[in-house]
């Protein structure tokens, strides 16, 4: 409990520090002005979401191979946390886009693939509510989770492979791309902060899933008596 | 500064989503823990579950959401007080219209909120009224320094959320347990 509290406090302080750095340390972007400061929150949340889905993907593969319920707990926990981060990405994106593009949303490759990613993981969680039997639920949702992850590389590559309304990549974007050094430092600090926060949320969600399993066992024991 | 309101809106909505998500996890975990306690006692004593509450009678119980919210208030108010204390120069640069006296007032408000959160942890009702007073002062201060009325009212939302969280839970409802 104490370790979890410390992790939570550290995560919260890091997130606050990253907001402070985004507003007061990162320099103002010349073309977009102050609205570009959403970048440090929007992109860091997107990366943290991708990592959460990657953890879910690994957990799903491990469940299929080893059939240990801890991997199922980790899978659903990271899927839910990844979904929360993707929701934030889908909301902060249009808030950034509206003053810059003059529209809230457009069906370009990056935006559409991200929306599909969100729908896929909503379906993953819905699927779990439809199957009663725990082992069957874990197996089917794991298989679906492995399939859903295919969209993550598509989201990542969308702005590299196709012409989109969405800005071109500034990190790992090839020649001519990149960030000013202070902006880069603030960005990577934000990415780190949101990854710590994501870890905290996954740990909390995992404990919830573990407690749920404990309740199921106790209920069965109580019924057997 | 053009579009600053959009930037704030993005951060506020994003953090709001994360906070609500965390609250739902804390609430569900707390409910399940209570269920585990309820189910464990009859297994040990072989008595019916409904007749044996998880906690001894007379002991105050706090809902998980309230615990999470109070921890959040403690951390956020400590951070706010520190931010105004350490980063006042940077804030002055970004908000030149902010009067000099506003900084010590905001630092004191942050520390006062911290004390109120600790008081609520110790089941003192004045902690809640302290939050109400502090929100009222912050509301007036925001209007004085030129914050839009919509955003200033948004600041009062914290008290409404606190009141709501104090009403959560059945046996664990905190409001009637406050001294």
Task: Explain what you see.
The complex is a heterodimer of chains A (225) and B (179). Chain A has helices at residues 2-25, 39-66, 69-101, 109-130, 134-148, 151-161, 181-224. Chain A contains seven helices and no strands. By secondary structure, chain A is mostly helical. Chain B is built from six helices and no strands. In chain B, helix 2 (64-86) packs antiparallel against helix 4 and helix 5 runs antiparallel to helix 6. Chain B is elongated and about 65 Å long.
By secondary-structure content and strand pairing, the structural class of chain A works out as mainly alpha
The proportion of residues in beta strands of chain B is under 5%
Structural domains of chain A: how many: 1
Q: What's the SSE pattern of chain B? A: HHHHHH
C-alpha geometry of chain A: globular
Condensed summary:
Chain A is mainly α.
Please outline the helices and strands:
The complex is a heterodimer of chains A (225) and B (179).
Chain A: H1 2-25, H2 39-66, H3 69-101, H4 109-130, H5 134-148, H6 151-161, H7 181-224
Chain B: H1 4-45, H2 64-86, H3 88-94, H4 102-121, H5 126-144, H6 149-166
Helix pairs in contact in B: 1-2, 2-4, 4-5, 5-6
């Amino acid at each position: 409990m104490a370790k979890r509290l410390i992790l939570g406090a550290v995560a919260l302080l890091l997130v606050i520090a990253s907001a402070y750095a985004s507003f007061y340390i990162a320099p103002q972007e010349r073309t977009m002005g102050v609205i570009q400061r959403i970048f440090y929150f929007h992109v860091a949340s997107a990366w943290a979401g991708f990592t959460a889905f990657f953890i879910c993907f690994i957990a799903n593969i491990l469940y299929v191979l080893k059939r240990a319920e801890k991997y199922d707990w980790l899978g659903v926990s990271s899927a839910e946390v990844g979904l929360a981060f993707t929701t934030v990405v889908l909301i902060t994106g249009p808030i950034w886009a509206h003053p810059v593009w003059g529209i809230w949303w457009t069906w370009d490759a990056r935006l559409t693939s991200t929306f599909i990613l969100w729908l896929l993981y909503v379906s993953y969680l819905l699927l779990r509510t439809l199957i009663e039997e725990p082992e069957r639920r874990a197996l089917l949702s794991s298989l679906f989770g492995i399939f859903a992850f295919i969209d993550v590389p598509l989201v990542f590559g969308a702005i590299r492979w196709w012409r989109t309304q969405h800005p071109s990549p500034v990190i790992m974007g090839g020649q001519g791309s990149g960030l000013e050094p202070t902006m880069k430092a603030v960005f990577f600090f934000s990415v780190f902060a949101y990854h710590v926060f994501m870890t905290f949320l996954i740990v909390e969600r995992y404990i919830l899933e573990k407690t749920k399993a404990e309740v199921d066992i106790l209920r069965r024991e109580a019924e057997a008596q | 500064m053009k579009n600053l309101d959009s930037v704030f809106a993005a951060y506020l909505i994003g953090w709001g989503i994360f906070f609500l998500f965390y609250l739902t996890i804390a609430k569900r975990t707390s409910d399940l823990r209570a269920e585990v306690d309820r189910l464990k006692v009859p297994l040990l004593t072989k008595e019916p579950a409904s007749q044996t509450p998880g906690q001894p009678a007379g002991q105050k119980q706090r809902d998980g959401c309230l615990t999470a919210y109070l921890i959040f208030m403690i951390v956020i108010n400590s951070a706010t007080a520190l931010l105004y204390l350490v980063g006042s120069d940077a804030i002055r640069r970004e908000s030149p219209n902010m009067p000099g006296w506003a900084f010590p007032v905001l630092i004191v408000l942050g520390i006062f909120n911290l004390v109120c959160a600790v008081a609520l942890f110790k089941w003192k009702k004045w902690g809640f009224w302290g939050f109400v007073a502090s929100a009222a002062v912050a509301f007036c201060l925001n209007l004085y320094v030129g914050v839009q009325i919509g955003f200033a009212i948004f600041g009062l939302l914290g008290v409404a959320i606190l009141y709501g969280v104090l009403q959560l839970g059945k046996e664990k409802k905190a409001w009637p347990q406050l001294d």
